[in-house]
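Ticket #4471: structure export looks truncated?
Reporter: QA, pipeline team
Priority: medium

Steps to reproduce: submit the single chain below to the structure queue and open the exported record.
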Amino acid sequence: MFRTAAMLGILLILFGCAQVPEEKKDARDPLQVLNRPVYDFNMQVLDAYLLRPAAVGYATVTPQPVRSGIVNFIENLQTPIDTVNAVFQGKPSNAGVGLARFLINSTVGVFGIFDVASEIGLELVKEDFGQTLGVWGIGDGAYLMLPAMGPSTARNFTGDVVDNLVIPQVALSTPQSLIVFAFKALEARASLIPQEGLLNESLDPYIFMKDIYFQRQLFELYDGNPPLKQEPDNYDEDFLENL
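Actual output as written to the record:
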């Protein structure tokens, strides 16, 4: 099945190189002629036949307290990365909160399974290396629709590679890293199920997802206070947070 899906993805890319209509051209998306076939492959093959059914099954059989514990554990595992990136971005308060959260949740919270830090007012602030590059003045680069991984940009893809190389080298073996990745993917997809209607009802789901992605990146880069309020009124805040 995996080989078949991979071959279908390659064929979609090869045969998807048609001219993009003038009204749909986007300076942020110079690779749209390749990105759209990958998006179709992700949604019509991988999501329809693999990821969504797995996420539905996961959400159905896993009690919410267990799901919350899994999410808390993974977020706690990533907190040192958030903390280091906060230092790189010149945000000492966020770095201090990240360090305190990691110490509290790793001990009192039983390896991060329980988010004790949030209960005492130390809220999670996610900082990744893609944001760090943005703070350093590096632009988004081309928008990318990655097979199986979804939307990204050249800058954020680079940041993800750096971040995802650090955790396995510091704390996890390869099998453990794969298990964490699988649970992250399942939880992320399961959290989007209530928001599927917005995507399906949009005139162009590809453009809708791209615009949501850039709004989310702007929101995170400026810690929730972007210089210009660009979020259209018809975008759902839950969809924006969970994408």
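Status: closed, not a bug. The export was complete when the record was re-opened. Leaving a note from the reviewer for reference: Residues 128-242 form one domain.
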